[in-house]
């Protein structure tokens, strides 16, 4: 069974047809990169997988999005449970104004976990998983705001991973970071894919080429093509893809 | 061929108008500060003479021509507390509802419109309404309860608006970050949004207290006693209050001349209370902001 299956999805913001008839599949533990010019719908598409678009009034979806074979838009789906299963990292680091520890523990606590030793254990694991533990282990009680931008983003990754999701969505996770922090995030993605399936939206094509197994190119609300990253970047089947990756537009 | 020299006079003109504009702004700002200091200085000059321990701790005596203002101080503090109990929970919850649960839609627009209109209603009209509803219809009589309810209604729009504005300025990325971890909306508000909005909400609350402490009209027909030297023993008692006391001894009584220093003393105490409240607001704000940073 595929980890994620998208079947003939159309998505609207009010009357605006933002995503046009998209179907795709994602294998377990793959890293899939979404690329395309601004406004092409790739972020909107990403936000379908944890139903973040539900927050936008007037949005509407037809078609099916299956994760582990279950339609996440079926009636009766508990959205908070879905979001625990499908974690998300945002473009700008958005740690809460709490301590480093409390940031990572937040997801566990809101999901009803009270066991202090378990929480402490998970926090340590998640911070190690996000390659942040050695930098923060002596100041877990310090404010998350005291960290650098790159550290904050890795904290947000730890925070998302702490609740053990099986899918991680990343919305341009390195676009607000300097090159060294970006390299750390990319390295992290390669580590994390052992545990989770990752979908990453990026404007940086080298990044897509470096970290992803498969790449999907979006243009004007359509998924132009989706295939192995190597193929997309060396021998795309569509001219639009070719033009975009060679920098002729976008 | 030599190209024409770039004309310098535009630059000069720009600088001159800049200088004139800022000089004007500065003069007007200083004027406002001057007015404030003039009022404060005048009240202190006239009122500081009567301030003494007895003045602050004794009831008025001799037909209010001497003695202190203790019952009025207590009354004002009680009314501030009472109105806070009425307005804070309702106002904060409405503010949360309007910003977090229903920021769009006709119902919220309607409530917001009504709230804004409510804040434009003259305070004497609140007084009249309070008298009709709380004093007469609900039968509370002239009482601290009726006065607190009326003052609470009066400060409600301010509390709702400050809560709403405080929450509105919190970037939605924090809400998304919390929701994306599987938190419910209520958890998000309770654990992330409210703590972040707290410094500004608290400031707004305390400032509304300051406003309430100075109001006369709303308690005129609902609570304030002309002369009630003993302290109230229940919320169904009347009480004296500083602004009303100030009004009374300035306009009526047995000997207005002799009462004048007391009036200035009362005004000074009232201003001092408001000043302390405002300083407290600033302090609380800083405290909560620091807690957000370090915790």
- Can you tell me the number of structural domains of chain A? 1
Q: Please tell me the CATH architecture of chain B by its name.
A: Orthogonal Bundle
Task: State the separation between the terminal residues of chain B, measured CA to CA.
Answer: 69 Å
| SSE run of chain A | EEEHEEHEHHHHEHEHEEHH
Give a written overview of the molecule.
The complex is a heterodimer of chains A (250) and B (295). Chain A is globular. Chain A has a single domain, classed as P-loop containing nucleotide triphosphate hydrolases (Rossmann fold, 3-Layer(aba) Sandwich), CATH 3.40.50.300. Chain A contains 10 helices and 10 strands. In chain A, 36% of the residues lie in helices and 26% in strands. Chain A starts with a strand and ends in a 5-residue tail after the last helix. In chain A, strand 1 and strand 2 form a beta hairpin. Chain A is of the alpha/beta class and 250 residues long. Chain B is an all-alpha fold and 295 residues long. Chain B has one domain: MetI-like (MetI-like fold, Orthogonal Bundle), CATH 1.10.3720. In chain B, strands 1-2 form a two-stranded antiparallel ribbon. In chain B, helix 1 packs across helix 11 and helix 3 packs antiparallel against helix 8. Chain B is globular, with a radius of gyration of 25 Å. The model of chain B has no long low-confidence stretch (mean pLDDT 88).
